[in-house]
Design goal:
two-stranded parallel ribbon, 13 strands, 7-stranded mixed sheet, 2 domains, alpha/beta, Aspartate Aminotransferase, domain 1, Aspartate Aminotransferase, domain 2
Length: 394
């Protein structure tokens, strides 16, 4: 049986990690992997997480299974964090998942169960796992233009032109904030236009929310999502706690479905539980319980929000300082968009040849489409990075 298997194409980011690890240069720079790093280059455990884990260690009395939908306290706390009071709770069903990736997978499985003939539309470009999972579950896919490579901003006109072809029941996959890989966010006007278009075409939005709190703030980052949820009968949301809680390896995520009625939500709840059962039965408990403790404790929540704000401000300052360094070195404003983007990533608009030259000549590692992890930049190395961009013709 196994002899018929064919080699799988390597994951580009995993491959880049291997190249970086094998590079002996002491001044090499990793801007590829999408994890937050503090100014010392570490991915820290957040203060509130440490304190919540200490409490959990003292108070937990069993390691028995949780329910098929996971920790319902966690699910409820996450629903409030994301949706606030914009949708009646009885219309929302949620399930704990193994990370945001697990949430994306389960929601696409739900789409296939409910409407196997639906087409899932995703942005060009997008996170590479989006098209991979869509294809794996057997759903049809189409892309819509999103990023203008000249301005390095959202191309709202092209986006709306492409989505005019939506059919009833199709799914529009959107990034809730901090678009990966470009860093270019939808404006509130874009969200309003998309809401009207999706309503007109009787389609369903699916929001991948991997970076809430990393853009402009916990509430600001979901303002467009909440306005859309308030206006439409249905919505799917895949949420991750990897970035905003720093729980990367603990795989903490949640899948939510907003239904038109409480009755439909109840049926959807059963469908999500059944999908969980055949995929992984019960989700891992530790990280989700930590998040539930933090969000349910006013003191821990305030400390978490303060540290998250510090992380966000660090990235915003890095963006502004990098844009300034690039303006000095290039004597132009072509990279000013870096300061306007949000989240960990920006796509710089460099060619694959320039990206390869940065790696070979300067030990600077980024994804081939010139996506960089802003949080991976050392504050004292911005001028060196900017000069390297100039030397390869950027």
């Amino acid at each position: 049986m196994l002899e018929v298997l064919k080699p799988q194409p390597p994951d580009k980011i995993i491959e880049l990690m291997g190249l970086f690890a094998a590079d002996p240069r002491a001044d090499k720079l990793d801007l590829g992997v999408g994890v937050y790093k503090d100014p010392q280059g570490r991915t820290p455990i957040m203060r509130a997480v440490k304190r919540a884990e200490e409490r959990l260690l003292k108070e937990q009395t069993t390691k028995s299974y949780v329910g098929l939908l996971g920790d319902l306290d966690f699910v409820g706390q996450m629903r409030g964090l994301i949706l606030g009071d914009t949708v009646a709770p009885e219309r929302v069903v949620g399930a704990q998942t193994p990370g945001g990736t697990g949430a994306v997978r389960q929601l696409l499985e739900l789409v296939r169960l409910a409407r196997p003939g639906a087409t899932v539309w995703y942005s060009e470009p997008t996170w590479p796992n989006h098209p991979a999972i869509i294809a794996h579950v057997g759903l049809a896919a189409r892309t819509y233009r999103y990023f203008d490579p000249v301005t390095c901003q959202v191309d709202g006109t092209a986006l709306r032109e492409d989505l005019a072809d939506l059919a009833a029941g199709d799914v529009v996959l959107l990034h809730g904030c901090c678009h990966n890989p470009t860093g270019a966010n939808l404006t509130l006007g874009d969200w309003a236009d998309l809401t009207a278009l999706i309503a007109e075409r009787h389609a369903v939005p699916m929001i991948d929310l991997a970076y809430q709190g990393f853009g402009d703030g916990l509430a600001a980052d979901v303002e467009g999502l909440r306005a859309m949820a308030a206006a439409l009968p249905e919505m799917l949301i895949a949420a991750s706690c990897s970035k905003n809680f720093g729980l990367y390896r603990d795989r903490v995520g949640a899948a939510f479905a907003v239904a038109a009625t409480a009755e439909t939500a109840a049926v959807t709840k059963g469908a999500l539980a059944a999908l969980n059962r055949v995929n992984y039965s019960f989700p891992p408990d530790h990280g989700a319980k930590v998040v539930a403790i933090i969000l349910g404790d006013p003191e821990l929540r305030a400390d978490w929000e303060a540290e998250l704000a510090d992380m966000r401000e660090t990235m915003l300052q890095l963006r502004e300082r990098l844009a300034e360094a690039l303006r000095r070195e290039t004597n132009s404003d072509r990279f000013d968009f870096v300061a306007e983007h949000r989240g960990m990533f920006s796509r710089l608009g460099l060619s694959p040849e320039q990206v390869a030259a940065l790696r070979a000549e300067h030990g600077i590692y980024m994804v081939g489409d010139s996506r960089i992890n802003i949080a991976g930049l050392p504050p004292e190395g911005l001028d060196r990075f900017a000069r390297a961009i100039v030397t390869v013709g950027g």
